[in-house]
Design brief:
Layout: H1 5-14, E1 22-25, E2 38-42, E3 55-58, H2 64-72, E4 75-76, E5 79-80, E6 84-88, E7 97-104, E8 109-115, E9 128-131, H3 146-158, E10 161-172, E11 175-178, E12 182-185
């Protein structure tokens, strides 16, 4: 099961990984209690949202409601937008990182992948891979804070994930913040999972 961004960020926040202050909108009429500038993000399961107009930055209140209504009317990669995540824009200066944990078919174990150049087009940039021992679950030295990577590894195993991807992971002051999250859960482990997610395509979801 692939999670929506807001669901993935909830899991990250629950283990102490910082995410932007946000509000989930289920209707264009929803009141928003966030400070400008605000990033509006269509909640769809497919990737490449930015290229399809699914991510919009609102700097002024004058076009805020228009942009929200516009997003709710979109279809992105054959998915109708039914929810929009509104987030306060995070100010950061250094380039963001790409970080992921995923099972590798060759090593038959999880691998941590890190790139110092995250964001759109990361597939074309250099990355470093670090095998993760499923017994010790020790965080490898990848240039990022050990406590942060340790949280991600533990979450990956505790929630029986097949993929945990943050792109980008940015630093604002002393805090590392996940600006986006893509998570895929192992459907075979549903019975062990404490948090239950509605089936994709369920009514009202």
């Amino acid at each position: 099961m692939i999670l929506y961004e807001f669901e993935g960020k909830e899991l990250l926040s629950n283990v102490g990984v910082s995410v932007p202050k946000s509000q989930l909108l289920i209707s264009p009429a929803d009141a928003v209690g966030l400070r400008l500038p605000i990033v509006l993000k269509a909640q769809v399961l497919s990737g490449k949202r930015a290229a399809s107009g699914g991510i919009i930055i609102c700097e002024k209140i004058s076009n805020f409601k228009f942009q929200i209504s516009n997003l709710f009317g979109k279809t992105i990669n054959n998915e109708r937008v039914g929810k929009v995540l509104a987030e306060e824009k995070v100010a950061y200066t250094k380039p963001g990182y790409y970080v992921s944990l995923a099972y590798d078919t060759n090593s038959r174990g999880p691998v941590l992948t890190v790139s110092k150049s995250g964001g759109t087009g990361v597939e074309e940039r250099s990355v470093e891979n670090y095998p993760v021992d499923p017994l010790s679950m020790e965080a490898p030295d990848c240039g990022l804070p050990v406590d942060l990577i340790d949280k991600l590894i533990k979450l990956f195993f505790e929630e029986d994930m097949l993929l945990l991807e943050i792109n980008p992971l940015v630093q604002a002051g002393d805090t590392w913040i996940a600006l986006d999250a893509k998570i895929k859960l192992d459907d075979n482990a549903e019975g062990r999972r404490e948090r239950k997610f509605p089936p994709r395509g369920a009514p009202g979801y």
